[in-house]
Amino acid sequence: MVKMNGSQILLECLKREGTTTVFGYPGGAVLPLYDAIPEFPEIHHVLVRHEQSAAHMADGFARATGEVGVCLATSGPGATNLVTGIATSFLDSTPMVAITGNVARTLLGKDGFQEADSTGITQPITKHNYLVMRAEDIAMTVREAFHIASSGRPGPVHIDIPKDVLQEEVEFIWPEKINLRGYKPNTKGHTGMIRRAAEAISTAKKPLIISGHGIKWGNAQAELVALAEKANIPVITTFLGIGGFPETHQLSYGWLGMHGMYHANMAADEADVVIGIGMRFDDRAMGRFSDFNPDATIVHIDIDPAEIGKNLPTAIPVVGDVKQVLPEITEIIPTGDNKPWLSWIEKVAEEHPSLEVRETRRLIPQYIIRSLYEETNGQATITTGVGQHQMWAGQHYFYNDPRQLISSGGLGTMGFELPAAIGAQIAKPDAEIWAICGDAGFQMTLQELAVCIDERAPVKIAIMNNAYLGMVRQWQELFYDDNYVSVAVTQPDFSKIAEAYGIKAIKVETKADVLPAIAEAREFDGPVLIDFHVDQEENVWPMVPAGAALRETIEIPEKELIR
Amino acid sequence: MSMNGNSPAQHIVVAIVEDKPGVLQRVAGLFRRRGFNIESLAVGHSESEGLSRITLVVDGASAPVEQVVKQLYKLIDVVKVSDLTDEAMVSRELVLMKIRCTGENRHEIIEIANLFRANIVDIATSSLILQITGDQEKIDALLDLCKPYGIRELTRTGTVSMVRGNRTTTVKEIESDEITKVHQSQGRRVSDSQELPFSSD
Ligand SMILES: Cc1ncc(C[n+]2csc(CCOP(=O)(O)OP(=O)(O)O)c2C)c(N)n1
Ligand SMILES: [Mg+2]
After folding, report:
1. 3-class secondary-structure state, position B181
2. Is B145 among the domain residues?
3. Which among A244, A246, A241 is positioned nearest to A212, based on CA atoms?
4. Residues B119-135: pLDDT tens digits?
5. A132 and B66: CB-CB below 8 Å?
6. pTM as predicted
7. What is the pLDDT of residues B159-168, one digit of tens each?
8. CATH number of the domain that B31 lies in?
9. Complex ipTM, two decimals?
10. Does domain A365-540 have CATH number 3.40.50.970?
């Protein structure tokens, strides 16, 4: 019989679940856990500088690898600091296990020092959560948590453990079996529905695939490509689905939504059969629901039954794992060429180009991102913050791998970029990782620069410094009569900040300096920060105004073309 | 009113859930978040150990019932959900009401109660407590008749329902004991008799 305390059991279970890295921050309630960490050399603990970043790093780790990311925090303020990161993971369905300590069992609910009702707080932003009240339940809880986080539609699971449970000594038993009566994700699609989906696709004149984040979590890029190629079906993606279908593939027509490509939005509006795959018909992607292509037959393939019919009426639902369902459809549909339909989209794309980088004297972010794409041969992993730079990073870099673009699409969390990049870099030490940052978002988590040094993480940081809360400024310009309120930000000298952390910095103010700076950063063996002083009032186009339909997509106005 | 005494806008949804702390909060949270109205909710043990049964009456106008069912299923602790609305079923609710009465009108009230097969379960100088079991239609009718006397206090258990005939909405799958043991203790407070350290440091 092996006796262990709760902390040792927890770490032993993490180890057995294959966890190699834990992103965390210590405090009173998790002291027993930290005490045991040195006994587990297989688990590397990354000390963050703010718990929010621990969750974002775990999230970046998960998105870069598909494995469960693990983060750790103490009770009370530690747990509440995690919340933004957990919610970010929840809205983008990333597999994560968040562990927090809590006060001793007898103190729970009594407002003791550093007590918060952590599971009460995380309940609506997790796939599931646990308050573990006996050390002998830790093992089963960890097993269930990893299973829930990584199966079906992935998501964050939170485990809260009182301090004295972490100290309690009990016999360690590794549960060979888990059984969750209430959780049996359905992976195999209904045969009848698959047949109906195939029929709809076969008889369509203008079929269109809209693929999403589910392609990444389902590891189903090859299956998606096979389906599209067999019947020559054009593919557009959601923002989070970028890279799920290789963007340089000839059937790729970009992505749709508020800042999607004009032709992608028009194609979505024109298609007669829309095949949503591993996506959720989100409002940012579909525009005004009531006016989304009312004539289209909607086929929806997703692992989460609750997404079917949630936002739009679905004619043919297929609930299942995309990796299993797609080949079954591909097998029974006939080959096709869809020539007239493809040329229709191509014509729209030609007449309404969305991705041209304008010739300007001024330094514009689009040019920087396109240059980065060319210099890195499209091979880098890109993380972004939230705002204009995020949209340009989605538009002007072209991604062929589902794990290449790491961005907070659902919650839209500023400050995600740097910690997510560090998490991705630690997961893939040899990968080239670029964090495309907003000057404002960067300041929300810049303290993590220290982690780049601690962990020798050679993350390349590119700040699109427009000295504005750019996206908010754009809305104030377009929809609030140029009434700029609280959007102009006084910026520190980012180079000096980087240098203060011991990080190499480059400042770029002209177009001519862009390529040399990128080259210098790439050559340097270690983290580099480039502070790109970009044009301040550049806007993101095209744009579907909030609450408008996709067909109301606005292109870049004449006056901005010549700016 | 439909055949089972519920207005057509109302749906009766039965959820069989793991008997764990926090389950009710999860269910209630789901309704709160989506703005679905709960007309009534009744919870108690089911026929299987470790499983509770929640009967929800939801307003179909505020809550697309298909979404309610699917969202409930998303909760890990929810094992089975059935929409009984279109089933032949028995629906009952128990109601206690304290009615104002005087020496003169007491008999009248008792007569009404008898007509409805309601019981007088307590009687005092100026009030009495009526207990009635029935479907909503019957209860509403009795309430209407009692209103003129003055209803001083009213409590309703919420509807519970069961399908008629040999069919059931039970869960067949049985958990092994060791797993049940863990599931039932998760999140549960330890008994006070247990010695525990006081300080959290
Ligand atoms: C935590 C958080 N707070 C506020 C917002 C609202 N918001 C969206 S974009 C944006 C401006 C971002 O500015 P910056 O990081 O400089 O990026 P830019 O748009 O200028 O590229 C703001 C404030 C948000 N998304 N996240
Ligand atoms: Mg900015």
Report:
1. helix
2. yes
3. A241
4. 999 999 999 999 999 99
5. no
6. 0.94
7. 999 999 988 8
8. 3.30.70.260
9. 0.88
10. yes
